[in-house]
Specification:
76% of the residues lie in helices and 1% in strands. With 267 residues, it is mostly helical. The chain has one domain. Strand 1 and strand 2 form a beta hairpin.
């Protein structure tokens, strides 16, 4: 707990970007938590897994706060949330169990590559043209399964996947972001359950851990993000966010590179 201030600052940033861009904040949390857990001398083979599980748990409160704020702006398309959620729960749970069996280095490499893809998407402002309507419930469940699976492997709320898909399906940007924020809640809950169960019998976990979830970090991050997420939502509905998207993209690229370097150094 000597790094309590770092968890509080992390929560402030996570909540703000979650509300602003409809992302869960894992792109920021996972690399920073990995570095913090390395400095706290957590078991080397568990550092990335702990970062992923802790990030998923912290996203629960962030997603709830963000979704609640977007709902006040009537920006959530609930039929889409309901249709996506069954697939999301299955995909997230399954992938979290798979991630628990993968060594830290491959997980860190996959995370860094995916974040590079997300950053490129943001920097180039790549947006699919709205050329179709939302599909039926069964296809949406399949899309949710894919979104949930990838989200569990990199501990994100799914915004980098959900927002482009919903935009492609003719939802307004504000609706896509709001719906993505709501979808982030089942992703976070099922991902947290998966990482808790998969890490339940892991040896030498740090005190105050629940499986691969480090509870002190979750508590401190969540307390602050709950209040900063609505601030991000307000800006999302008032300001163009193109510049902030590019700043966020550069930030997650730098953090991912630092994480990969730290894991390679630990190996």
């Amino acid at each position: 707990m000597e790094l309590w201030w770092a968890f509080l600052l992390l929560g402030a940033a996570v909540g703000f970007f979650a509300g602003l861009l409809g992302v869960g904040g894992g792109g920021i949390m996972v690399p920073i938590l990995t570095s913090l857990f390395i400095s706290l001398d957590f078991v080397q083979s568990q550092q990335v897994h702990m970062a992923l599980g802790t990030s998923m748990a912290a996203i629960i409160v962030t997603a709830f706060a963000s979704a609640r704020s977007h709902q006040k702006h009537q920006a959530i398309v609930w039929p889409a949330v309901k249709a996506l959620s069954p697939g999301i729960v299955l995909g997230t749970l399954g992938a979290s169990f798979i991630a628990a069996s993968v060594p830290s280095l491959p997980l860190a490499i996959f995370f860094s590559l995916f974040m590079a893809f997300v950053a490129l998407q943001l920097i180039l402002n790549i947006k699919p043209k709205p050329t179709r309507q939302l599909p039926g419930n069964l296809p949406l469940a399949g899309v949710g399964f894919a979104i949930g699976g990838i989200s569990a492997l990199v501990a994100i709320g799914g915004g980098s996947l959900t927002v482009p898909f919903l935009t492609w399906c003719n939802l307004k940007v504000q609706q896509a972001i709001g719906t993505s924020a709501a979808v982030g809640l089942p992703i976070a809950v099922s991902g947290t359950i998966g990482y808790v169960i998969s890490g339940w019998h892991a040896a030498d976990l740090p005190p105050w851990s629940l499986g691969y979830v480090y509870l002190p970090a979750v508590a401190l991050i969540s307390v602050v993000s709950f209040f900063t997420a609505p601030l991000g939502v307000k800006l999302a509905h008032r300001l163009p966010v193109s510049v902030l998207k590019k700043i966020f993209a550069l930030l997650i690229m730098l953090l991912s590179a630092k994480m990969l370097h730290a894991v390679l150094g630990a190996d």
